[in-house]
């Protein structure tokens, strides 16, 4: 339990670590750098799925458990996507009403963090050495640029930089709660572990393909983003070998 608490806390607070940069940036970062960061984290998450979650789900539950769990993960994210209007954080224009769109952004990001927290908790419950730390790291690295983008969006809405930092940090806090839920469920109901690992991989793959890759290719930086994606994969593979 101590490990999952530490891992989930560090993973969730990575959102705040990314948002912290808003206090030191004189202005907004360029589209190119945002695209590079998004593609890099997509590569990291892809490697965590393909070389961590999916093989371990197969090993402990077989192909059927993997398929069911992955489709549950993808289905959950699909429902969230349909019921929470998606707003592109990178391309939103300034000057819109904070009470309407900014609150929608905060709610959307917070709810999208739920399956990420579950992923961390389930990974620690699997009792496979290093899996929990690996997934917590992958999610944390994805949360950092997300926190920065949320903070940048709020600052564009004329929100004070410090308040933007606090709000962005709080959007990641729900991951601590959901990771504990995921850990508790799979710890006490052991047969859920392969389904939980597959659920986590499905949710992460949805985020990669539906959100991170399209957004990293939206401003004419496809080549740079592609290289960043590959570097992200290699970085995570290197960590797996250590």
Please explain how this structure is put together:
Helix content is 82%, strand content 0%. The longest helix is centred in the first third of the chain and has 53 residues, at 31-83. The chain is globular and about 50 Å long. Helix 1 (2-20) packs antiparallel against helix 5 (161-188), helix 3 (98-125) crosses helix 6 and helix 4 (131-156) packs antiparallel against helix 5. Residues 89-100 have low confidence and may be disordered. By secondary structure, the protein is an all-alpha fold. The chain starts with a helix and ends with a helix. The chain is built from seven helices and no strands.
Distance between the termini: 24 Å
Instruction: Kindly state the percentage of residues in helix.
Output: over 70%
Major pleated sheet: none
Number of helices: 7
User: Order of helices and strands, N to C?
Assistant: HHHHHHH
**How many strands appear in the DSSP assignment?**
0
Organism: Peribacillus deserti
Transmembrane segments: 6-24, 36-54, 60-80, 101-122, 134-155, 162-185, 191-212, 224-241
Keywords: Membrane, Transmembrane, Transmembrane helix
InterPro entries: ZIP
């Amino acid at each position: 339990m101590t490990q999952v608490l530490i891992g989930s806390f560090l993973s969730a607070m990575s959102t705040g670590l990314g948002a912290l940069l808003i206090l030191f940036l004189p202005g907004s970062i360029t589209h190119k750098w945002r695209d590079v960061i998004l593609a890099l984290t997509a590569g990291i998450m892809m490697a965590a799925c393909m070389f961590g979650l999916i093989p371990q789900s197969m090993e402990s539950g077989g192909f059927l458990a993997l398929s069911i769990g992955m489709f549950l993960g993808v289905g959950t994210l699909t429902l969230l996507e349909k019921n929470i209007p998606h707003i592109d954080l990178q391309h939103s224009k300034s000057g819109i009403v904070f009470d309407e769109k900014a609150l929608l952004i905060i709610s959307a990001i917070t709810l999208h963090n739920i399956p990420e927290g579950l992923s961390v908790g389930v990974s620690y419950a699997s009792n496979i050495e290093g899996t929990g730390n690996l997934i917590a790291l992958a999610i944390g690295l994805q949360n950092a640029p997300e926190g920065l983008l949320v903070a940048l969006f709020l600052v564009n809405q004329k929100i004070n930089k410090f308040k933007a930092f606090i709000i962005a940090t709080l959007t990641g806090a729900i991951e601590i709660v959901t990771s504990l839920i995921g850990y508790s469920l799979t710890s006490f109901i052991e047969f859920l572990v392969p389904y939980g690992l597959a659920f986590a991989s499905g949710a992460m793959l949805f985020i990669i393909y539906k959100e991170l890759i399209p957004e990293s290719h939206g401003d004419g930086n496809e080549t740079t983003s592609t290289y960043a994606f590959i570097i992200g994969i290699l970085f995570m593979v290197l960590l797996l070998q250590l």
